[in-house]
Fold this sequence. Notes:
Blueprint: H1 2-37, H2 42-47, H3 58-67, H4 72-103, H5 109-120, H6 128-137, H7 145-148, H8 155-168, H9 171-179, H10 184-195, H11 197-213, H12 216-221, H13 230-235, H14 246-280
Helix pairs in contact: 1-14, 3-14, 4-8, 4-11, 5-8, 11-14
Amino acid sequence: xxxGMLASRNSTKAVxxxxxxxxxxxxxxxxxxxxxxxxxxxxxxxxNSVAFWPxxxxxxxxxxxxxxxFNPLTGFMxxxxxxxxATLGAVYFSSLTAYALVAYSWKLxxxxxxxxxxxxxxxxxxxxxxxxxxxxxxxxxxxxxxLILPAIAxxxxxFFMRQYLxxxxxxxxxxxxxxxxxxxxxTFNRIILPIMKPAIATQAIFSFVFSWNNLFLPLILxxxxxKYTMPIMVSLLRGDIYKTEYGSVYLxxxxxxxxxxxxxxxxxxxxxxxxxxxxxxx
Length: 282
């Protein structure tokens, strides 16, 4: 009887592993094809768009890419500044707002949270014209600041951080810190933020990816090619009237995606640690 149950359990685990491996391969497959096509010529891509092995045209694709006024270093630096600044501001101030909504009891706490959720319902495109006019009036067009500072107010992240704190934060810890004489910002920076590491890592990944891939606002605000971000440069990788160099386009896309992999692998350990902590918590 026990042997039969053990065999059934092992077969179930084997099926689960096979399904997970299959799903992982499906997720990796588009990125692998993109990286492989970045090493192939336009003719090879047109003949067969799916290739599992690299070709020998990486250097020629790079020359074509740079010859199209594509400056990877400028685009990378601009995108990194925007994404890093927006992510740090969004994560810190959203966590601070969520902490105020959970740890403090004040009269307008619930209406304030309702107001934040109401803002979440408004699409960004609705306010884009007014936002551009405001940036133009203060001479902030062709600047990276309008892409960084508005990220401080991120309603979706505030909601996520608030729900996480409500599930994990014990107010006795805050009261103990106050009794010991710790200031409010000291308590938040030294006690609350370490507790929120899994939530911060999760939202940092989402925020960084969103800021890195953001094309709508940069395309409206930026007209100076020295301020272009990577998505704008990739969107301009069109061929001339006669031919489109698909190999260079895939290479530009690959350069755009690489930093996202790095950020994910750097922060994923905190997400896994948070999941393990939640599984062990009574």
